[in-house]
Write a structure and sequence with these properties.
The complex is a heterodimer of chains A (413) and B (112). Helices cover 39% and strands 22% of the residues of chain A. Chain A has 413 residues and is an alpha/beta fold. Chain A folds into two domains: 3-145, 3-Layer(aba) Sandwich (Rossmann fold); 172-403, PPM-type phosphatase domain (Phosphatase 2c, domain 1). In chain A, the strands form three sheets. In chain A, strands 7, 8, 9, 10, 13 and 14 form a six-stranded mixed β-sheet that branches. In chain A, helix 1 (3-15) packs across helix 6 and helix 3 (50-60) runs parallel beside helix 4. Chain A is elongated and about 110 Å long. Chain B has 112 residues and is an alpha/beta fold. Chain B is 43% helix and 22% strand. In chain B, strands 1-2-4-6-7 form a five-stranded mixed β-sheet, with helices on both faces. A two-stranded parallel sheet of chain B has the order 3-5. Chain B starts with a strand and ends with a helix. The relative contact order of chain B is 0.19. The chains are: A alpha/beta (413), B alpha/beta (112). At the A-B interface, strand 13 of A face helix 2 of B.
Amino acid sequence: MSAHAAQAIAQLVAEQPVRLLVVDDGRDNRLLLERILRPEGYELRFASDGCDALAQASAQRPDLVLLDVVMPGMDGFEVCRRLKQDQRLAEVPVIFLSALTEVDDKLTGLSLGAVDWVAKPFDAREVQARVRNQVHLRQMSRSLLRANHDLQAKQSRLNEDLAAAADIQRSLMPRTAPSGAEFELAWRFVPCQAVGGDIFNVLPLRDEHLALYVLDVAGHGVPAAMVTVSTVQSLSPLAGLVQAPGSGPPLAPARVLERLDAEYPLERFGKHFTIAYALLDLRTGRLRCSSAAHPRPLLQGTDGRIRELRAGGTIIGLDGLLPFTEDDLQLAPGERLLLYTDGITELADPQGRAFGEERLWAFLERRQGQPLQDLCDDLLAELRTFAAADEPRDDITFLALDWRGLPCPGPQA
Amino acid sequence: MHIDIEDLEDVTVVTVHEPRLDALVAAELRNRLMDLVGQGRTRLALDVSRVGFIDSSGLGVLVALLRRLGKPQALALWGPTPAVDRTLRLARMDRILTLVPDRDAALCALRE
């Protein structure tokens, strides 16, 4: 809590008069206490026996009770015991006033939950000082309670905002996989907080091209998520970065990364990102791919063997420090492409060992030919088993494509 | 955040004692290093031999530092563990950073 907020709360509390309930069967004592305490600015109420004290306490919820011990009928100890048993009143501090001088009596009083003990006959200044202390403590604990309540309210608003942000982020990702006779797509996205620094997309582009990308902004949470929102916009087909406005084929992946690199210098958001970007020509099966400091996309052949698509460059954000290269290859029917973020390979087990590329490759080799949706489910399950009870420290995203090959040419019209 | 700073005449040697350079420590490390540059240190030799893991946030620290220093020759690193070395190469940072075998080589490279 800021000093300013603390002050504001203290003021609020101070503006309400402090209410004291004085309980004593002796009229002279009540008058005396009134003379002692009135000048301190308290609002005073009086009770002359235990029953009246409980009734008034219940009705007024005083800030402090000054309680005589020896009274006819219900004594002060019993009043205190009952106050402490009442949930609404248990927190009200009680100061005993008594002519009893035995240590045992004092201990009994304090063990019942009283905060202080003042011996009769009173010294006016002592009574004033002890009451003042307790009132001050009470105000502090109240302002803490109030601050705590405010914080909880703020936290719950923040949580609602985060949930809304997560919905927005999810709305930027494709809901249903585009499909065609030539290919099949599937993906999974598991942010480690409500919102994440990973994002992916599948874009149908001109001339029957399909662009796929997986992007990972450094860091997590809201700041990283906001950058992902910006990049999704930049990479949308209408923004002109992945394909020129008007006509013409989509830009080559290396060119796309160059332009991203120019558009997102590190200084712009204080954040850099990595990306794997693939462009598939659905008419021919030509695949071009470039990665900026991103885990390399994996291509699995029909024989099960996996290779990395290594072309690319360094982190997006260095403003042209290194050129981007690209892989350019021909997909064969039955080949499988996997784009993913390092949330998979850096996922740690309880001993801190990373899942690593070897495990990922071995997994893919075991599951070669398995339907894509099953593969995705099984991979998530495998990762969860590996991490055991540990929460992932990074977002997990992967995107897989199976190339079925070109449909057989029908009879020419 | 635990780093050691040793000011030589013309080069500052920074030893990073963090086992992981990830999102948890990146912001603080970045600020500490930026402060060093802000205080007028223009050549930094970075000992990363105690760092067992670096992620993209950690790489971001190196990149930001490089940009703040203005020229790649003003920063030299030595001692990357195999995991860190692999990540640096994957991100092609090995082409931007001056990676050298040891402290002497770092001082040499920076004094060229």
